[in-house]
Amino acid sequence: MGIMNKARKIILGDDMGTVDKVVDVTFKFNLGDKAKDKITGFKGLVVRRTQWLNNCNTYGLQSIELKDGVPQDPQSFDEPQISLVEEKAVEVNNSTGGPNRLVSKTTNL
Questions:
Q1: Do 39 and 81 meet the contact criterion of CB atoms below 8 Å apart?
Q2: Nearest-angstrom CA–CA distance, 79 and 29
Q3: How many CB atoms lie within 10 A of CB 46?
Q4: Which CATH superfamily is domain 8-86 in?
Q5: Cα dist. 16→19, 21, 23, 96 in Å?
Q6: Residue 84 contacts residue 97 (beta carbons within 8 Å)
Q7: Alpha-carbon distances, residue 19 vs 8, 74, 96 (angstroms)
Q8: How far apart are CA 55 and CA 94, in angstroms?
């Protein structure tokens, strides 16, 4: 089984930058890992992960196989229901495609 991801700090607040609280989030699988559903045998790449209100982590697995020549929609599974097939099956690009530099604040309008 893969190494537990380090806890990530998620900051919850409002649009004005007021911080309400900081929450630790720990995921068992990384984006780009290949995983398998223990019940159905469905295999795919971890393309998304979500932590729900009651601390239930879910993962979206995208099949690497086509069905009738068309990609299948990602399927969601709870963390305890999937097992690791291969760590880092694909390279994950953390670039969002957005600005790569900080834009200075405009003070004169």
A1: yes
A2: 8
A3: 25
A4: Hemimethylated DNA-binding domain (2.30.30.390)
A5: 9, 14, 19, 23
A6: no
A7: 16, 33, 24
A8: 25
**Tens digits of residue pLDDT in 64-74:** 999 999 999 99
Domain range summary for the chain, segments of one domain joined by +: 8-86
* pLDDT tens for each residue of 65-105: 999 999 999 999 999 999 999 999 998 887 766 666 655 66
Contact indicator for 32, 88 with CB cutoff of 8 Å: yes
- Which residue stretches of the chain are H helix? none
Which positions ≥6 away from 20 have C-beta within 8 Å?
Answer: 12, 13, 14
Residue at token pair 């196989």: 65
DSSP 55: S
Contact 9, 26 (CB under 8 A): no
The pTM score is 0.68
**Residues in Cβ contact with 103 at an 8 Å cutoff, skipping those fewer than 6 apart:** none
